[in-house]
Amino acid sequence: MGFGGKDLTLGNMKALILVGGYGTRLRPLTLSRPKPLVEFANKPIVLHQIEALVAAGVTQVVLAVSYHAEQMEQELAQEAQKLGIRITFSLEEEPLGTAGPIKLAQSILASNDEPFFVLNSDVICDFPFTQMVKFHKQHGREGTIVVTKVEEPSKYGVVIYDETGKIDRFVEKPQEFVSNKINAGMYIFNPSVLKRIECRPMSIEKEVFPYMAGDGQLYAQELHGFWMDIGQPKDFLTGMCLFLNSCKLNNSAKLYKGPGVVGNVLVDSSAKIGKNCRIGPNVTIGPDVVIEDGVCIKRCTILRGATIRSHTWLENCIIGWKCIVGQWVRMENVSVLGEDVIVKDELYVNGGMVLPHKSIGASVLEPKIIM
Amino acid sequence: DYKSAHYLSASKDLDVGTRFRPLSLDVPKPLFPVAGLPMVQHHIEACASVPDIREILLLGYFPAQQLQQFVADMIAAYKIRIRYLQEYQALGTAGGIYHFRDQISSGNPDAFFVLNGDVCGDFPLQEILNFHTSLSTPSLITIMGTEATRQQSTMYGCIVEDKETHQILHYVEKPSTFVSNLINCGVYICSPDIFKRVGEIFNSRQDFYSCEDSEGTESIQLEQDILMPIAGTGQAYVYTTDRWWSQIKTAGSAIYANRHYLQLYHKTKNERLAVNGPDKPTIIGDVYIHPTATVDPSALLGPNVSVGKNAVIGAGVRIRESIILGNTTIQEHSCVLYTVVGWNSTVGAWTRLEGTPCDPNPNKPFAKMDNVPLFNAEGKLNPSITILGNDVKVPSEVVVINSIILPYKELSASTKNEIIL
To answer: Fewest CB within a 10 Å sphere: which of A26, A224, B235, B237?
Structure first.
């Protein structure tokens, strides 16, 4: 093996991550930080993806964004150096949809003959990038889509393919069951795909894939293991549970063990946890977080620098950076606190979505947005 | 010397205390503890502090054995003659007094107080007694009155007063249009001569109803049947007070009364209020903790909390504006706000009990508690104090908001704005 454990025989691959716009579905968190940098299981979402790409032989990553991303450029420049790769940004003057950005980044993506990855920035899973390359080279056609099994396929578009993986067609939101496999948002393409895309707003699902499938050039690869689109809070938390479970199955040493811990819990080493707490199952606690005595947290993400004061009970919440949650507070039902929110003592927040820098002095009895 | 008669079944309907359910399902309402003492004990205490009170009589429809122990305890505590006289049917305030007139008149008291069982307040009994006995023309009945807002006055007995003589010119109970904002507090002082008057009315009604069945004919209401006719005859007077006064009709009003009675302890019963100290829970404001209750030092109590006999309050518990009745356990880290937790109940850990106060409007002078109905126009429960009846079990980590849980119920999940039967 070589540098960083990546397989050098794969060559210098490239990847395009479709970041897109302002990440409005993950507000209020994305009001303070660009979505790719929101920490999922204590690491920016995009970094989970980049690290997995690097391990599969990618040496250059392009982030397709449709707004100025100085903050991202700065933070990711450091990571790029650490990983020994190049990270560049492709700025869409107007949003180009799901296919247009690929064309925009043509000069990088098609700079050699190697296939390149394209991924949706909201996807978390046990990234199968190495297996994707193998399968793609094996069938030798133009494109490979990763598909995943879901419980309710009619909420999505399903993919119909044969036993070799050759995709026959796509069916958008089928009324009756045809398949339970959906597009998992991860692709490998040969550079020849760029002939099919114009530099204008284009949907890859509607305007590219159907033609590739018609030409027999598109293959599906099943993903094994967990998968989640974490673009909104409810799914962010579900994805966190799946991720932690995967940690448990693979690499238990990362998970936190301590007094009062139940189930899978991830705790940054700089966080402090008080006495008589019950943490978990399914909790991630970020750097510099302070959890005071007698706190009970279940199925939550607590971001960097937050403080949870004593005797508070949290379930199914995302607590934003630097928040202060008072004593004897109860929060549940996918409550999300933006950056630097203060929740006063003894309040009840049920499904409250609170914008940054807000101080809450009254209970939120029913799901509501607090500006 | 004097006596006092406390009418414990103040309402006209035969199901007494139904608005106080579920708290009255297991215990007679007059015995419900507010600020650590049964409601009627606050009355007894007020009367016992009037010198020359010889005897206190409790009149009611409750079975005698429900009050036996209480009466014995009161005699021991206040060293005064106290008796419970049980009505054979609900006789109404005047009917009850008339029925037991011999007991009240025995020993020839110069006057006797009458108090409705569900009023509460800082009663100026000595002052009203002085007023009554120093009147130039004798009063058959002197009513304690207080001011209400114009709008709320129509929910009470309204008194029209002669400002100079303080005679009652007119009295009407719950008028449909505004009459006066001076209302009847349900506290009276009567001359024994009033029995003659009541007898006349009683007899005239007997004649009228002689061919009907006897159910209800002996019920005579003090307000409608006695006060209204006496008003304007120069024999009824009103003494106006501006000290705190209210009624305890619903469980929610018990929280309000709890707060005010606790505050009154500062005057003469300061030793009843809990204080901060090493190895003691942190106390904010007025808090009553029964000497047999166990409260973890890491708990934070108050303001306006009463904790009953043998209650157990666990580590890190927060209680505010609530009444915790006897033998109840609240486990660690739980938060109890605006709630009445019934006797023998168990509340798990990290659980939140929360109600909504229905206090009088603090911005309106003389505002009284509103009589908010249980349900609103859409049939939903109006937000109110959360009440747990006797022997209720609430699991850990749930939330109970604006709900009423009937006795012996074991909750399995959170409840909001519900009555759990």
So the answer is: A224
